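Hey Z.,

So I finally got round to the adenosine-5'-triphosphate thing we talked about over coffee. Here's the setup:
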Amino acid sequence: MTDQLASPLQGGILLVDDTPDNLRVLSAMLTRQGFEVRKALTGQRAIASAQIVLPDLILLDIKMPEMDGYAVCQHLKANPTTSEVPVIFISALDDALDKVKAFSVGGVDYVTKPFQEIEVLARIEHQLRIQRLQQQLVVQNHELTRSNRDLEQFAYIVSHDLQQPLQSITGFTQLIQARYQDYPDVTIREYLHRIHDSGSRIQCLIQDLLVYARVGGDYQELQPVDCNRLLHQVSSDLQSAITKKQAVLTYDNLPQIMGNEPQLIQLFQNLISNAIKFVRPDITPQVKISATLQTHYWLFEVSDNGIGIEAHNIERVFEIFQRTESAKNYPGTGIGLATCRKIV
Ligand SMILES: Nc1ncnc2c1ncn2[C@@H]1O[C@H](COP(=O)(O)OP(=O)(O)OP(=O)(O)O)[C@@H](O)[C@H]1O
Ligand SMILES: [Mg+2]
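And the result:
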């Protein structure tokens, strides 16, 4: 057994067999390899023992009186405490039907008697490795969820607290601009204009960041949402941009889906405003929204006649602050699609 395997797994191996000789042989073999070994002569004792100290792995004989290996395995799998412990069956019968049953009751592997020591060891180590990786994944997942939550909280607080002082900067600049609109020095007026412009852009950025941080944090209640009505709402929200660009928005026969309405509005608003925005100035934007039913879900498509997204950028644009080279002449901060992905 390698040290790498030994470290995070401490419960040892539980051997279950109603024949004491078999137990002795297997136990001696595994102890020689450095494994901690516990033994049980019946299914009932195995279940009790596994519950007291959780083993890393169970080697389970199939043919036992009273409670056979399959029943023991089913019992272990039904109990949340023991359900994750890998079970390798030991069987004297090399019967296809038995193997199927062994897997269907939750076994991960089997060895048939008489067995070769090296094979049994290889199978055990293999299962322990999987077990160790799974445990690592669970821990890492936990850690990731936590740090993600912290980051979102951080983004939220920072953005929130930045709003107030920024409001003062843009507000006072506006006051100065109003009072000195006839000020003779054009450069000063230009500077004031730039301060106000930058301030407003940061305000937009903060607003977008706040939306991004808020989306999907907690469990969101899903409700039936009629997407035709939703789109009607979104297009009236975007009316000024639509009119300004003379954009044509088409959609019909959209389904009713389960969702969170404010977030779905946000989703379509981002997608449609992109579709209207990223269009050459000499072209009238045409935006089409459609939905087709797939086996288990609705596939929504939003298409436009704009500058398009190069295939190699398709993944990247959904990451926060990522914009394409061709978008550099259009305004934006690169948060919209990241928010969309979170919502979806
Ligand atoms: N309909 C589209 N046509 C062409 N490129 C697009 C389209 N939608 C998104 N993109 C590209 O994807 C990038 C990311 O989109 P996203 O909506 O996140 O950011 P943005 O529109 O630039 O800024 P924001 O939405 O935060 O104001 C855009 O900068 C652009 O490069
Ligand atoms: Mg956008």
